[in-house]
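Here is one chain, start to finish.
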Amino acid sequence: MWKALPGLPVPMEQLAALQGDYLKSVTELWNQSLGRLGGAAAPAPAIGDRRFASNEWLTNPAAAYTAQMYLLNARTLMQMADAVQGDEKTKARVRFAVQQFIDASSPSNFLAFNPEALKKAVETKGESIAAGLQHLVEDLQKGHVSQTDESVFEVGRNVATTEGTVVFENALFQLIEYKPLTAKVHERPMLFVPPCINKYYILDLQPENSVIRYTVEQGHRTFVVSWRNPDESLKATTWDDYIEDGAIRAIRTVQAIGGSEKINTLGFCVGGTILSTALAVLAARGEQPAQSVTLLTTLLDFQDTGILDIFIDEASVRLREMTLGPQAPGGPGLLKGQELATTFSFLRPNDLVWNYVVGNYLKGETPPPFDLLYWNGDSTNLPGPMYCWYLRHTYLQNELKQPGKLTVCGEPVDLGKIAAPVFIYGSREDHIVPWTAAYRSVPLFKGKRSFVLGASGHIAGVINPPAKGKRSHWVNETVGDKPPATAEAWLDGATEHAGSWWPVWTDWLKPHGGKLVAAPKTPGSRQYKAIEPAPGRYVKAKA
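Its structure:
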């Protein structure tokens, strides 16, 4: 970063102003700290950062000074990063790198400078340090920083517990059919395609916040794709394989089991990208299996990819292709799940990394059990050829939105040929799929379109059950056939409503389900027999 600064100059007038403000602030802070050391001034006021919120930081003059100097230095460094001249992507990369350095160098992250950790070490006669070392050794063996007490959870026992049956499997996925919870179900079945970069049970963490269970409770015969966690045997798998042998195979199986040519479909995150591509391929073949399409925090137009954009350019994609792709000198490889998980954690390092470094290692605490963070740490691998294709043709070249630009499974891809009503959801504080980017999917479809905006982020916004009465959502009834041209125009005409967006979706979905028929007494069909109980084997495989 610093080597790049000579080519990215900070204007001299801005630099001079920053230096002047910095020296003034340092002088004031030093004088205040001297007054506290001499007893002439009151203890430090609240610092305004939760890392330094405890009384130990405020009543210890040296610790308070250290924290305040750190925050002053951090603010000045970010102001310098903001003042750097260069193109927007380069400036974003500089800001990201500086923020990573700032977060890592916080005095709270070091035992010698953390008065809370030192006090606990004294009070426990060193036991907290011994426990912290034990946690460190265990995490080194696991290959990641523990964010929750992983020993509490087991997939199928206390997460992913909605009752169901695996009714189909191939090398890429298992298909789960869930047991009806109503006497009658809609005649058209429902298929969920979750992301393959995570495990499906984010949609089925606990009964009270399970999107899957909620859908079943609404009378929909529900099927879910459970992607296999790729190992060496799948390292050569391509994007076309995920479309043909994954999503399309799942669609055809649900059609066969449900006895319906039309099915309702839902894709979440990358699963929405896969589902949309598959439906476009089928449309090119003259098939329209979708009665409806729901896309949750999904990118189809990759013009704005949020913070992830800083990782994408021709050089980085080419590097991946030469190390993991089909033409790599050593042959195709796997993108390891831990690398993906680490990347996503460092998008929010204070919350997902350093917070646990302090708690686990400096204080010797065991992190509390939290199902969402258990899922977050249950990472998955990706086949190199599939991942490289995805990076190049979506994030780098943004070709999926261009009609006929891409050929997948031998067919030209045109999302506009999908003849089904579409429900699109975005989360307002999503840093992975910005809600404005999710809205850019709206004009890519030609039929009736509905867009709903939820509060919170990429996961918390989606997993927001109505019973909790949390957060809010925005709707704009004017979308239909002629949606507003921009996300901002849509929001200007939207109204905010308290609570979950789930009832809005189920009200939209209900007429697409068709008439009610008697719920099936057994899972699968004569052709597709029960294989094993949900959640199945694939989701339990570790990366």
